[in-house]
Amino acid sequence: MNEANAPPPFDLLLKGGHVIDPKRAISQRMDLAVAGGRVASVDKGIPSSQAQRTVDASGLYVTPGLIDIHVHVYPSHCNLGLVADGHSFSSGVTTMVDAGTMGGANFADFKRRVIDQSETRVLAFLNIVDIGMEGDFEQDVSRMQAELAARIAHEYPEWIVGIKCAHYWTWQPWDADHRPWDNVERALQAGELCHKPVMVDFWPRPPERSYADLILRKLRPGDIHTHVFAQQFPILDGDGRVNRILLQARERGVIFDLGHGMGSFWFRNAVPAIEQGFLPDSIGTDLHTGSVNGPVVNMQNVISKLLNLGMTLEDLILRATVAPAREIGRPELGTLDVGAEADVAVWQLREGRFGFTDCGQARMAGTQKLECVLTMRRGKVVFDPAGLTMPEWQKAPADYWVCRRPKGAPETWVPHL
Ligand SMILES: [Zn+2]
Fold first, then answer.
1. Cα(161) to centroid of ligand 1, in Å?
2. DSSP labels, 342-377
3. How far is the CA of 310 from the centre of ligand 1 (A)?
4. pLDDT digits (tens, 9 = 90+) for 42-68
5. Ligand 1 mean position to 234 CA, how many Å?
6. How far is residue 3's CA from residue 23's CA, in Å, rounded to a whole number?
7. What is the Rg, in whole angstroms, of the alpha carbon atoms belonging to the chain?
8. If you measure from the C-alpha of residue 99 to the centroid of ligand 1, how many angstroms do you get, rounded to a whole number?
């Protein structure tokens, strides 16, 4: 075949969009080409003749597919669980990290039923409790098995990114079987054994179990406190300034994840903290059946909320791509590096009158809303509600105009109309 007849090298070209790739400090108008499921080129002025399909992305933002570091997607195990693919792509999310819905005793089941069945890349923090969430068994310290968790984490290194502990002894009196730090200490022990970070959902009960002790003494650099703007934390001091212990903990390398959820995002904590420059390190949504109809709704709603609190789009994309990738030890994710799997999201930033809510049923007005308009996973278009990659119906190709052979029907099948 001579060069004039050679097929164009790129499968798809997103042309003229504003590319934000925080890993490479890119935030400018560029073209992005995809071939063979991977990012093939990010450059200015890639000609349309080089691609089989070209999408006009002018006026839109183009980012890596987002990483949601805190979700619950194990519906067959407990009623918190959502179906991953039903909530990821429509929000530009291509990687979801389940935060401990399962533990060491049921990870294999989670892998078979969720990870292997999902087009979304699903990773996991393994709960220190052997069967994860959610029930009275989470209070049984004998089920918090560090050796089991570490062994399973070693067995499935491709999917398990850390250890989770949550929901432990929030109000009951201490006793010999329930000491203040049992679940945190066992999770940290598992983290030591498998060399992975620990994500902590925490309820402070000073003086025996204080937040300062958690973030200044217990957690190691790289460990993650999720739900940072929840009501139960002393985010502000008596003068309304960000509490020094948060700054000291950040200095030590402790990570603060948003972990919005049903109860863990309050404007009264988030607004002053963000105004004073204390931004969450990553934007986990804590999406589950209890938060999906509000106040979380989805990743794009959470990002929009924070945009209206004054964070920039670059700040936010960073915290939903490279930052969580670093936290989970997967630096190859969350970037548009040439050669990376082509997980890509395209966005429209709408201006208007919008409203946002927090976990205390309080409201905030806003003027900007980010809307996902296209998502690709491994170079395949998985979300395209406005048909950006499709022809006008009148110009659709020949096979559009006939009744297509049903899936599984023999080659000899003919339509009877
Ligand atoms: Zn959660």
1. 15
2. --EEEEEEEEEEEEEE-TTS-EEEEEEEEEEEEEEE
3. 25
4. 999 999 999 999 999 999 999 999 999
5. 20
6. 35
7. 23
8. 6
